[in-house]
Amino acid sequence: MVAVEEQTLLAELRQPETKSRAFDRLVRLHQEMLYHHIRRLVIDHDDTDDVLQNTFLKAWRHIDGFRADAKLRTWLYRIATNEALSFLENKQKRQFVGVEDLQNDLRHSLESGPHIDGDEILIRLQAAVLTLPDRQRTVFHLRYYDELPYEEISEILGVTAGALKASYHHAVKKIEAHLTGQAQAG
Amino acid sequence: MNHDNQPKEFSEGSGLLGSLPKRRHAPPEGYFAGFPERLQARIEEEDLLAQAPTLLSTGKRTPFVVPEGYFDLLPGRIRALLLPAEQRVSSIRPLWPSLLATAAAAVMMLVFLARGTQPETTELPPLPLLTAEELLAVVDIDEDLIIESLQHQDLASLLDDVPIPSGAPSKKHTAPVSEPDALFDEALDQLDEQALDALEAELLQEEPVEDWF
Question: What is the ipTM of this complex?
């Protein structure tokens, strides 16, 4: 989004009489990007829908406090990431299960849930990504799929760009090893 | 580029081209500040992905399917969630009269039960008659709903003033109820307890069953 457009949108979001319409525009502009980011983390479509709605509700409630020292996109990514990771954490607590059980649960959704394309290699890749810790797979998704610069991921996750780079390199190597290991076994 | 071949009207300083301001496309602010680092990171990443051919072979596709029309409907659903409470009230307006009726029935039932648990006396204490305010104090009902409903009632009373065409059944057709009621009460006073019980039983039997529900 061009900086001038973003400034206009922000100005409209801060005016009570234009806020509602401007927010509608904000939703339309960012809904797909945020949906896919959340979906890759929580896997299930219905869960994604819940988390995405919460993300926009939070954005609506806190838009007046947005200081504009970051881009709107970065801010929304940050809210969405927090919401998705909190959702997974709460899910784990609700079900009284460990990290591995949660991973199995997500893997089950991936392999047999609705709204999943049956392409085997794509499912295998996502299953490999699921073996990573939540934060590391967030880094992987933001860099590999969304192609965000490390500086922006750093703002989203509150981690230094150097640490992110190292995390991403590790993630790629682990995923490749997982995929080739499976390929040899299969 | 050979500028000598340009037609005269496009040559510098004349015609349309000459009138246009000479401006370069400005990159976003700070674009060149981190450019070398970004380029270096890109090269490193290309090298890294070259070592992960299986990952690279999948491209950037995912198996996640979005239900058809989901993104068309989402903005509307979000908008509905953000609607102020007063705008959402209209959708539940038809429910409040039944809520009030249920609440009133519950209050009457409580009064009845309270009477039933008291020791028998020759004279029953007078029933506590609740005013609308007292009833509302007992039952938690949104004031906005009530105001809205009263506004609807005002409309209904305005309709009462609309002249009724001749031939249509008149509202005044129904007999005034005050006089027969008084006579009926007087007759009841003259009945003894046994006769009252019998009358009550008879009335209950005559009541159509479907009216109980």
Answer: 0.90
